[in-house]
UniProtKB/TrEMBL annotation:
SUPFAM superfamilies: Xylose isomerase-like. Its EC number is 3.1.21.2. One of its GO terms (molecular function) is phosphoric diester hydrolase activity. This is Putative endonuclease 4. Keywords: DNA damage, DNA repair, Endonuclease, Hydrolase, Metal-binding, Nuclease, Zinc. Belongs to the AP endonuclease 2 family. Its cofactor is Zn(2+).
Amino acid sequence: MHIGCHVSVRQGYTEAARIAQRLGGTCYQYFPKNPRSLQIKSFSRQDAQQCRDFCKEHGIISIAHTPYPTNLCTEGREEQAAMVASVRNDLEIADACGSIGVVVHFGQYKGNHPDPLFGYQLMIRSLNEILEGWTGNALILLENNAGQGNKMGMTLEELVQVRALINRPELVGFCFDTCHAFASGLWTGGNWEEVQKRGEELGYFTHLKAVHLNDSRYPTGSHRDRHADIGYGEIGAERIGELIRSRGVREVPLFLETPAERPGGHKSEIAFVKQLFASPQ
């Protein structure tokens, strides 16, 4: 299995990979640039190449995550152009670092258009613009939503359908967030076999490239996106153990986005998840 956590790139991309390794991880996630801005980053390709080489040498997997303001359903042309340019910049950095891809939350339409499908149309348009002419290996990884706001992106059907409708679906994979799935009501904690069966029918797991492994501070169906350490939330260690050992997930890298409040922080939590994975089924 591959398990790791989110790490900072404040000291560079190569050092981020080293930090992940020191924590006992064999994978990690990072923000390729300022997580609070869509401003384009001019990055050190030498550092990125060194990061790629280090990860290859040590068998470490990485993914990037777009900044918080990223919204694939942005309506204004000027705002959308800035968002598209930002995600392309993220893809370029991720590709240079040798990462699987860039996680992007399923879009949230915040306008007043009467067509209920308008937000999805905006999202497809955005993805087509982002991926037009893209020749790198890094993928867009669409992440399921918890249901805050207009409740777009909570179902596997939405994720699969959007991927199917874009011009270059081969450049899009999925990232499954356990807290988001629990908060949305997609996964109640006791219905994983049902979720897995539906995902297999849809072809979702064929394109699943990453799992955000998070417990939830709030109950299932709450639509509240608040992460908790594994075993410290409403999902619980037993249910999370069942999920990570399941046939749809057990070979997919796991990335903690937890607050690391347990004694020993993320290093201790990574060790705990390894024990969960090795537990008898």
